Amino acid sequence: MIQSAPLYVPNRSRLRTLIPGASLAILVALILGLGPIWLVSDGSLKTMGAVVMFLVPLCLVLAVAKARAIGPTQTSFTLGLLVWWFLLISDKFFDRVSDVQNTFEGQYSVDAYGEVFVWVIALVVLALISVSKPDYLKKLFSGSFKWLSLFVLSCLVASTYSPSPAYSLGWGFKLLVVTLVLGMCTSYMERLRDVRSMIWATMWGLLFVCLLAVAEAAADPTNMFQGIGGRFNADPVVLSGTAGLLLICALTLNSLHPRLWLKLIALVSVLIMILSFGKTGIIAGVVGATIFLLFQKKLASSLGLLVGVGLVAAVLVTTVTPLANYVSTYRGGTNLTGRTEIWQRGIESIKQKPLLGHGYLATKFMWTTQRQGLVADVAHLHNGFLETLYNNGVVGLIFLLGIHCTILANLFYAKKTVHAYQRAGGSSEANTLIVGCFALYLDLLIYGLFTPAFGGRTTVHFMVFLSLLGVSMALRRCAEQVQPSRPRTVARPSAPWREPFPVPAPEART
Fold this sequence. Notes:
About 40% of the residues are buried. The chain contains 17 helices and no strands. It is about 65% helix and about 0% strand. α8 packs antiparallel against α17 (about 460-480). By secondary structure, the chain is an all-alpha fold.
């Protein structure tokens, strides 16, 4: 007797999963449709878009981790990298030129509140991730990381006597969130693959920021080159600096895993760097990338990069009329586009309060007390060290220099160790990561001599600089675990340089 097929019975667990999502979608639709008009303003929509762009990949990571039975440690590290990526790109959603007078008087736009809101969301997610492993909180004020924690503390204290405490505390809050994220990610980076993951997350964040800036400039082709001096319609100095960092990240990852699309990302970064024509960003990016290739013993590639960048710049300058006009009419070489006057005025003000400074981000409001010349339109001192000295005083500068010295000390220690390991026949992967991090640091150091790449607002450049502290700590930790004197026949799966790798025999090192 043939039995009829049973009717389809929906999976109850699947329904229980769909009901909350459908309820949330209906609730959002009702709020947007029946809520007040300000709720659907540009600032509110930007905030909702940023939150959705963060929560969707967050849910995907959790779903994949559960499906593949990934351990809690690796899941937490992946989520931490996602929070890091989100913080890198979050400011681009709310990119705007704020009115200094309104900011000084405590009047902020909807975008400003939305920006702070997404930082709060990131902190909430970080707190939920940290529940499983809060041990890193105890190490924030120990070891190499203490310099960053002390710097953050000095910024928060200096915010209380800033000309606009609310503005300074807002950016101080983001600096605190970034520090906590880096503290957690650093505690999870035990192997080279974890360091690679950090650089991957950073590269994707930088790529998103660059492409979004280009898309915004290209949205109106008639005004694409109506920026400063006829350059790309975006902040030329900032965009060139970001593209330079993207170039070094792409070159580093391509050295580890050669891919055609990574080479294309490097090419795109060069094009963006030149189109925006930020001179400081171009010089810093080219120098950093060249040093990376030279340290990799790729002389031909280094010369090819220099020649290629020069040819691309020549073609773009001669074919893109606004760039040609800017180059031909540029007269700022004698005073570094007015920076020498700004530095002189800044040093005079620093002498008034040398110890504790004028308050965190007080340089934004310099014009309220100095209305003469270029200083009337300046929002920072165009130098990371002077920026810190003016805002946080000598105390803050000491902590910032501690971060610089610690990054270099960790990288040099790891480089020395891995050099001895390579001579014994070990892998070159660690060396590539160390040199890549040093190239990023050199780029930011050069860039920070003419911009507030470090010490000011927690922008993408400052965040990448701070991440180098965590990455250098992880590389040093990996170096300290190397034991090249073990016999060749012993396999060491927990070795940090390569998972797993055969340890060279003692006679091979002679």
